[in-house]
Every structure is written in structure tokens, then in C-alpha cells.
Amino acid sequence: MLPEILQQYPVAQALASFDADAIAGGKFDRGELTLEIDAAKIVPVCMRLKTEEKFIRCSDVTALDYYPAEPRFVVVYHLHSLARNERLRLKCRVSGQNAAIDSVTGVWRSANWFEREVFDLFGIQFRHHPDLTRIMMPEGWEGHPLRKDYPVTGNRV
To answer: Which of 28, 34, 78, 108 has the highest local Cβ count within 10 Å?
Structure first.
């Protein structure tokens, strides 16, 4: 069921008619709509947004760490519809116990390096990613430096 606060936005209505359980919440702030999406449904939701709602550009994928809270991580997708000059932010909550979510590289190729960066710095796995390897830190680096519980002192290589 689409929260009442989101019912005035056509993109949210379109997603709710596609899958009523996909949207867990959201808000409109500073001229931008943010939708909280069930992490298990991120790929079909993104495919729908690209094909039907014309969000043809994934401009960024990043993450937030809310350690020690659970779910620990939030994966954030920034999308852009060039046809309507409209931006959309998607957020998915991911558990710290099994930090994994499906990759959207099959929807937008531009997500490839963004997902690799999130993997490298936060340790979140992107299932079905074509090349989930480190992109910023050296291959022998231990840990993920943007995690809140990452030690800030000491030798790690």
C-alpha cells in the first residue's frame, strides 16, 4: 500500500500499481522525491523505472552505514529522467549480517563502477555483478574503510 504522503507523485503511483509491496516509504524534500524500496525488489523496480518511467540514467550508487543499528546499511540510487528532467532517489535497507543486494548493472551499465566502489568501501556484496572487485583500495587491503567500525589507526596492508 502506497503511503498517503506519496500518492500525489505520478512515479510513486506508477510503481505502486506495478508492485504494491515494492515501496516501503518515502518523502519529498528539497525538490526531490525519495522512495524506500524493498531490497528484494530493486531489479524489477529499476527495470520498470527505466523502461516505463524513462529514468534512463543512473547517475550514482552509494551507501550509508548506520552502525550499530540494524539494518545497518542503506544503498542509495540516484536516477535521472532526461525526457522529463526529473530526478529520483531510491533507498534500500540492507542487513549488516549479510550485506548483499542484487546488482542493477543489467539495467544500467553505468552502475558497474558505482557498485564496485560501494563494495570496496563498505563491503556490500552486489549479487550477479559482472566483476565485483576492488576499484579504489589495493588488492591486498584488509577491510572496508567507510564502515563505521573500521579502525582509524594501525597498519592494514
So the answer is: 108
Rounded CA gap, 83 and 145, in Å?
38
Domain count, the chain: 1
Q: How many residues does this entry show for the chain? A: 157
Domain extent, residue 40, equals 4-101
Question: How far is CA 83 from each of CA 32, 54, 57, 111, 113, rounded to the nearest angstrom?
Answer: 16, 7, 11, 20, 25
Q: Which CATH number does the domain housing residue 66 bear?
A: 3.30.460.80
Task: Write down the pTM of the prediction.
Answer: 0.94
Question: What are the pLDDT digits (tens) for 24-67?
Answer: 999 999 989 999 999 999 999 999 999 999 999 999 999 999 99
pLDDT > 80? residue 155: no
